[in-house]
Task: structure prediction
Amino acid sequence: MTGIHTTPDPRALRDLAVRVATEAGGLAAEGQAGVTVLDTKSSPTDVVTKMDRATEELIRSRLLAVRPDDAILGEEGGEAGGDGGSGVRWVVDPIDGTVNYLYGQPDWGVAIAAEVDGVVVAAAVNVPRRGELYEAVLGEGSRCNGEPLQAPPAVPLEQALVATGFGYFPERRVQQARVLVEVVPHIRDIRRGGSAAVDLTGLAAGRANAFYERGLNPWDWAAPGLIASEAGIRVGGLHGGPPANDLVIAARPELYDALDALLAPLGADRD
Result:
């Protein structure tokens, strides 16, 4: 019957995500040297390389070879499939941090998340140039290279190292800069790494205390968000809502509340 499906094992989905992210990361890493801009998307600074598309094509083919009834939402190819009614949708970012990738920098990653009936239950993020493979299952914790992750305890806002990012539209960047000017006096320092996947998994690994960014899409936060949350990080939006394109905030719960309160009156969720 349409709409009736057997609930898949999240561990099996995680294992598939890990296998595919490992292979896709290897492909992207091999293709990084000498890569050039193939196209642009939302603005001239929002670039796509041939490897973004080749990596997503590999991911789609590998996932559908195992689970042909699933849907896939990918950054480059949009949403397709799902007619089999499995209830599973894969949310894929083939290369998160494409500008870093284009310039030969190490902070980019392959992110693959599995949703079951709209809830992210399994994830893998491969950061090949760092030699880091992150994975998580909802309710079962997260790991990096097989070792359990536990984010460091919260610090006061004034001692927090906060990661953020900027959009591709000039008008949005101007507003984000205004917000940043107001945020910096209240925190330890800011970091702008260029990849939400690396930033969010970095919270789980203790490389920063908090993160916020406007303009992210589900493929930016689905996989790394689960990994971070399973390590003790709260991942949401403004006023404690769910993560959204308007704003994503991530930190230990006590620090999350303080950062949320700082960002709300600054218009961090508006252009």
